[in-house]
Design goal:
Length: about 70
Amino acid sequence: MDIKQIGEKLQERRALFRLRQEDLAEISGVGIRTIRQIEQGVGNPSFDTLRKLFIAVGMDVTVEIISIVKPT
């Protein structure tokens, strides 16, 4: 999932709860400018920032690590 898709999901979830960006900023502790950037699909938020936002709107964050092994 890229930042644009993440921003769209976050915005949809925020709308579901009828939260303004200002409300989400207060609940999550993430700056409103950062929230705007994420929802616009720009920026490079840290994992911790995304975690705070997703928790605030009742979403889970999962990380999948894919190991690429070169053949010998």
